[in-house]
Amino acid sequence: MILIVSTLPSPVGPLALACDEQERLRGVSFGDGLSRVMHREYPDARLADGGTPGPIRVGLEAYFDGDQAALGRTPWSLDGAVAANGFQARVWRALADIPAGLTISYGEMARRAGEPGAAQAAGVALNRNPIAVVLPCHRVVGA
Predict the structure, then answer these.
(1) Distance between terminal CA atoms of the chain?
(2) Who contacts 112 (Cβ-Cβ below 8 Å, separation ≥6)?
(3) pLDDT score at 7
(4) Positions marked catalytic
(5) Which residue would you say has higher pLDDT here, 61 or 79?
(6) Is the per-residue pLDDT at 84 higher than 90?
(7) CB 19 within 8 A of CB 6
(8) High-pLDDT (> 70) share of the chain, %
C-alpha cells in the first residue's frame, strides 16, 4: 500500500494527512507524529509526498468553516490497519455513528462497541484512533 502524505492548513495549525490511492483518509496529525502512527498501523505501507485529494480537502475545509456534518462526508478507511480488528475496531465504527453535536461517555462507547463495563478499554481504543478529526474522539467524554 502507498500512503500519500500531504499538509492542509487549519485554524489550529498545519494538519498532516495520509491518504490511500483510492483517495480515502488513513491518518491525521496536528503534530509531527503522522509517520510514526502510519508505520504502526500500516507497517508495510510506503509513504510518499503528494497533494491532498479533493474530497478530503473539501470535507475538512468545510468542517473548519463550521459545517460539522462535513466530517461524515469525508472519505476514510481503516481497513488493513493493525489495530482495526476486535474491540478497537468496534469502538472506531461506533465512533463514526455519533452525530455531530452529541457527546457520549466512555461507558456508553464501551456499551455501543459490545463490551459494557469496558470504559477504560474504550478510552485506550479512542487514543489509538489514527483519524481523530474525522472519527470524532472529542464526542466521547468522561461521565
Answers:
(1) 39
(2) 94, 97, 104
(3) 95
(4) 137
(5) 61
(6) no
(7) yes
(8) 99
Please give the grid coordinates belonging to residue 136.
Answer: 470524532
Could you tell me if 45 and 35 are in contact, meaning their C-beta atoms sit under 8 angstroms apart? no
Q: Show the domains of the chain with their CATH numbers.
A: 2-73 (3.30.160), 86-141 (1.10.10.10)
Nearest by Cα to 56 from 35, 70, 37: 70
Q: Which residues of 9-63 form beta strands (DSSP E)?
A: 15-19, 25-29, 46-49
CB within 8 A of 61, min separation 6: which ones?
8
Which DSSP letter does residue 76 get? B
- As a whole number of Å, the CA-based R_g of the chain is 15
Closest by CA position to 105, among listed 82, 72, 139, 69: 139
